[in-house]
Amino acid sequence: MDFEIGLRQFWNVRDVSMAESLHWILEREGPQAKMVVAAANTHLQLHPVRMQRATSMGSYYSSRFGRDEILFIGSACESTVKSDPPIPECNQAVYAQIGPDCFFLDLRVAPHSGAVADWLAEERLDRSNMRYQPVCPGDAWDCLVFHRTLRTAEVELPSYLHSEPGELTSTEMDKVSGRYLVYGFLAALNTLDVFRDGDDFYTSGWDDTSGELFPPYKAAFHKCTDGRFRWQVWPAAVEFQTGEQPVKITIDMPGIGIYHGERIGDAQPT
Predict the structure, then answer these.
(1) Residue 190: beta bridge partners?
(2) FRET label pair with 232: which of 115, 123, 147, 164, CA 20 to 30 Å apart?
(3) pTM of the predicted model as reported, rounded to 2 decimal places
């Protein structure tokens, strides 16, 4: 399966659903309702996703329902959750030169001519998650918020996904430790390292390039009373099938899907 085609089809269905759901909420709550809806920049932007020629929630919503009742605000940071700096030619590299560690820009009141207007009207690479794609800031956002640093917070799971931490022995850690190749997220291959460090258990998604199914950095990992493994900073649940050789892995990522993989060797923690 071609990754670009798969992403476009997957993306279009998901973003149209986002826009329809947002419109349904606004109609249900009435014109006086005030709310904040958060999503990745690529979903919220007001023009389509250029590289895959896919729609975006923002572009679909604005073209179908208008923009009178909603503001589209992009977010940006200097580094990723892996502490990677921005590439020099991207939008984030320019925002980082402005000065303050955190600032908010209302692009609706930006000049209509001159250097600022020219810069906002130019399409250049923009980072969302760990990927870059062409974005024209002046067309994509009503406003922009920038912060120099970024980290993931602890996830508060709904009750039907939650399970209390359970006991995990060193023998169990050793049994499931290793490098896993996870298949099926579009056409991408995702590499996850699972390993122990003394009495502690971790994963590393450092070599993964998507940042969708599990933390793309070293993160603490724990076993729960339902037998599944979880992170405090990620909503996915993981199961290991240790009766098979090689050991199999299943990742259940709410809102995205269920993905399978297998151990391909020893872990290579960072």
Answers:
(1) 182
(2) 147
(3) 0.83
